Amino acid sequence: MPKIVLSRSEYEKRVQKIREELARRQLDALYLTSDTSILYASGFSHISTERPAALLVPLEGDVVFMGPVMERDHIRACAPQVKRVYSYLDYPGEKHPMDLFAGWLREIGLASKAIGIDSIAGASGKWGYSGPDISEKLPEARFVKARDIVENLRLVKSDEEVVLIKESARWAALAHSLLQEFTKPGLWDLEISLKASLEASREMKRKLGPGYEKTKWGLACASANYRGQVGENSAVPHAISTRRKIRKGDVLVTGAGSDVGGYSAELERTMIVGKPTDKQKKYFEIMVEMQGAALQAFGPDVMCSDVDKATINVARERGVTEYLLHHAGHGLGLEGHEPPWLDLGNDELLKPGMVVSCEPGIYIPGYAGFRHSDTVLITKQGAQLVTSYPRDLRSLTIRAR
User: How far are the Cα atoms of 138, 175, 224, 256, 294 from residue 268, in angstroms, in the given order?
Assistant: First the structure.
């Protein structure tokens, strides 16, 4: 049976690394409000709302959760390593949660300590939260911006994380193959996406067994979609939807992924409905050449900017720089976009264990967009493709039947 969750020891190692960084910075605790950071440090995945919630990692002692009572039993079931849970009924409540948080921090012994925090407000601020900052309620404490502690730890993936991302890539490929199989003119992209995602999710659950469950909030375990990047709308890199149905001659840009322990690989392809025109072939080939240049550039101690430059150089040689709308890729893991950024302005070095997307694209307004995306693992020897799916035009041409 493939690995589908992180071990408890993985979370224990993360907490230990956080504490080592706290000691180095002379901080007494780390106060996390980001739902992703809370998940990373504890294994607890929840829906972040207007209700303040925080995970506290002290330099010594138990990891603590503070949040709405609706999450009390939830976190106890999902993250047994969180030993202390403080809860309130609801927000804004008769007594504001920030008043309660301040009281709990005093009880824990942090009233006059140095506390690293990822949001000075002391709450994520989602869904309309408003209220005093935690620093206003605990003025004797010293709050220090420390969002980067968890972000830096997430940059290089552990062996366990890599295994989950590779498993995600396997199911992303299945979802994408079903998307391609179900696509034909006259259908709305959403109905194709839902059908492919359902079939892939059903097979994923069947093969992974009763121990599998989704970690992130969302509909499908494995998904593939067009997200509205159909025909002329494929020239919008982050399109949301389209009102029209797929037609013969359309360029389609896809996206596929799956949730394995909260981690997801990224797989995207450009497909064409019916026999490609010479113009479509031209831009498709340029895009593939750009991605190939990026793939060749990857390796340990390579600057992120150099990967982006490799794609820009191809675009310049082929005369399509005006059609570049984004950088060559970004980090992947618990989020669809996370550092490092493969951008012209980022000279950060790639390190073994980093996982990134490789997705240079070109977008011709009013005509079409062309983008493949693959997930890449940086290794000590170079780089390894995690996703596996055809990249050539012949394989990605859909019969207009």
Answer: 48, 11, 9, 6, 15
